[in-house]
Write a structure and sequence with these properties.
The chain is built from four helices and eight strands. It is of the alpha+beta class and 144 residues long.
């Protein structure tokens, strides 16, 4: 199973980039207006839209893996089922006391690994948890 963002999300990001560039060119009366519009268009078009487009979570017969981040330096996180003793989903606190959901993966080797899932992983948590359980991975849900 491969999870991706609904098509309207990356299309909206690309539309925002194009609109910002178009408006900058149409209303280029001052250099400031032109530069701000082109900067917003470039930021969204070169950073945000491609990142949303490449984001994916893959849950197959061997692993749960997420690819996220910028197109030139993607981040891959997840785990192979054969390494896992159990998974516990908790609420954790990060920098500035910000609360986030964490997946604490207890490894068969005795160690643990904490994964901060991305938005796409979070959006599909219920289905991912059910599919992991169907594959024999013990998942404890300590968040609601």
């Amino acid at each position: 199973m491969t999870y991706t963002f609904p098509l309207w999300i990356p299309v909206t990001a690309w539309a925002i980039a194009g609109t910002a560039i178009l408006l900058a060119l149409v209303f280029r009366k001052t250099l400031v207006v032109l530069m701000v519009g082109l900067s917003v268009g470039a930021l969204v078009g070169l950073l945000i839209a491609p990142a949303i487009t490449i984001d994916r979570v893959v849950l197959d017969d061997e692993k749960l893996e997420q690819t996220t981040g910028f197109w030139w330096s993607p981040t891959v996180k997840g785990f192979h089922y054969d390494e896992v003793a159990s998974v516990r989903i908790i609420k954790a606190r990060g920098r500035k006391n910000r609360e986030y959901e964490a997946w604490v993966v207890k490894l068969r080797s005795g160690g643990t690994r904490e994964i901060d899932p991305g938005d796409l992983w979070d959006m599909n948590r219920a289905d991912i948890v059910q599919r992991l359980r169907d594959k024999g991975v013990e998942v404890q849900l300590d968040v609601r």
